[in-house]
Write a structure and sequence with these properties.
- This protein has 9 helices and 21 strands.
- The protein is α+β, with helices and mostly antiparallel strands.
- The relative contact order is 0.15.
């Protein structure tokens, strides 16, 4: 039986000084030094889907927020002066009102690169969640875990779920929602990596020697992060713990996406500061979350990570994340899934010296997915160019297609390289496995130099593979929002 936390029940749970409201919230002090996350105005007119959406199922748990991801990457070693940590991330809610939110915390992480997404990164020790709070503006509600205020997440387990978390009146459409997690291990023990802090959006990470020293920031979330934790930039930024999958009720019947992605979909090469106002990094998240006047925002959760390949996804050693998805479905009547369609962005890392092997690896994942979730439609997305350059990608003429990306006769719809042959196979439907194909060529294709990056106002790619922010913006603008009709 789920538990909805309201303040009269949870009064003793609150840490720090705050004034108690009778509607199940706490009122934090005014004067935060950064814009407090709150409800973002719903676009006018409110986006509606074309064709007319189904009625939806308001009591069905569906993926609920932007920004969220599964853990991946190197573990963090708890320093002696910061074994207690509190993170605050800010996510965006869908274009409909939410209630009954449940969030998940994992006991494992996936590898990045190499054998990704193998789920073999285990801390070897439990993570103690000391508290978890959702906030909208100055209204804050604390979650419970099976009616308890705290939870242990054992190493190597799928993890734990919160009980239902409710705000009086629900979470308004298009809201910015703060998610604050206090957790600890012993000094020297390992902590699970999830999020790089987007400080410019009001996100923070604090550390200390005890719980009181970190939860003191609950009432002043604009306090600077702890300097020793908020370091580096780009891939050098450390990653800190927090919720991964979050669900909510209120679904309006429009598509909800589960995305199988690699580094281009996950965009872990980007700087945290390049996130948009709702925390999105990468072209796929930003494209899906665009508040288009016809199709609106598409709720989504991307399950992959840098280095992911089709041959390893949902195969031996890479099923814990999918077990979490199954747990989410178990909350619903009839085990209804928390998504309606799979978007498969994989393919960039599938290159092989034999095309038959490459194709088999790609379809192998699709077949494993279809066996696990029969009847769920799959929509594929196109890959991006991969080249080397003698002038930092500032011209097409000075780019060279790398092995597997060869094009052959200029003007052909697809190149002769194995990567492009796979794209042709995907666009054709992969022998009935793929119901739709979202083409990236509107961004990059030029028949005078096919397979190369376009010339932008600044360098489009740092190494010929992953797009910089300028290219991500151009991709999102180039791919028509009408492609969202393929998600139905």
């Amino acid at each position: 039986m789920s538990t909805r936390t309201t303040l009269p029940v949870a009064l003793s749970m609150m840490i720090g000084s705050c004034s108690v409201m009778m509607n199940g919230s706490v009122d934090s002090p005014d004067g935060f030094p950064f814009p407090v996350p709150g409800a973002t105005a719903t676009p006018t007119p409110t986006p509606t889907a074309t064709p007319t959406p189904s009625a939806g199922s308001p009591d069905r748990y569906m993926f609920a927020f932007t920004r969220l991801r599964m853990p991946s990457g190197p573990l963090v070693t708890a320093a002696a002066d910061t074994p207690f940590v509190m993170t605050r991330i800010v996510a965006g809610s869908p274009q409909y009102r939410l209630w009954g939110v449940r969030c998940h915390f994992s006991g494992f992480a996936s590898t990045e690169g190499g054998m990704a997404p193998q789920e073999s990164i285990l801390p070897g020790n439990a993570t103690r969640i000391d508290g978890f709070w959702l906030s909208i503006g100055r209204t804050r509600v604390r979650a419970t875990f099976a009616d308890a205020m705290t939870a242990n997440v054992d190493s190597g387990t799928t993890g734990v779920w919160t009980d239902e978390i409710d705000f009086a009146g629900g979470i308004p459409a298009n809201s910015d929602v703060g998610m604050t997690t206090a957790y600890h291990t012993a000094a020297g023990e390992k902590q699970i990596p999830v999020y790089r802090i987007q400080s410019n959006r009001g996100e923070r990470v604090w550390g200390g020697t005890d719980l009181a020293s970190v939860t003191a920031h609950l009432d002043s979330p604009g306090d600077f992060s702890t300097a020793s934790l908020d370091t580096g930039s780009g891939q050098a930024m450390p990653q800190y713990y927090g919720p991964d999958v979050c669900l909510g009720k209120g679904w309006d019947g429009n598509p909800v996406v589960l995305g199988a992605v690699d580094s281009i979909g996950e965009s872990r090469q980007e700087y945290a500061v390049e996130a948009d106002t709702r925390g999105n990094l990468g072209w796929l998240r930003k494209w899906l979350d665009t508040a288009d006047g016809t199709y609106g925002r598409t709720p989504h959760f991307l399950i992959g990570m840098p280095g992911a390949r089709s041959q390893y996804e949902l195969a031996a050693g890479a099923t814990l994340r999918w077990q979490v998805i199954d747990q989410a479905a178990a909350f619903n009547t009839g085990r209804a899934l928390p998504f309606t369609v799979l978007v498969n962005q994989l393919g960039q890392n599938d290159l092989n010296s034999k095309f038959a092997t490459m194709r088999a690896n790609y379809t192998g994942f699709l077949d494993r997915f279809a066996a696990r979730y029969p009847g769920i439609r799959v929509v594929a997305t196109g890959v991006l160019p991969r080249t080397s350059s003698t002038d930092l990608w500032m011209s097409r003429a000075n780019q060279t297609l790398v092995t597997g990306n060869e094009w052959g006769t200029a003007g052909g719809r697809w190149g002769t390289g194995f990567k492009w042959q796979l794209e042709a196979y995907k666009e054709s439907g992969a022998e009935g496995r793929i119901a739709g194909y979202i083409d990236t060529r509107p961004f990059w294709y030029d028949d005078t130099a096919p397979g190369t990056w376009p010339v932008l106002s600044s360098q489009p790619s740092p190494e010929g593979v992953h797009p910089y922010a300028v290219a991500v913006t151009a991709i999102v603008g180039a791919i028509p929002q009408s492609g969202k009709a393929k998600l139905r």
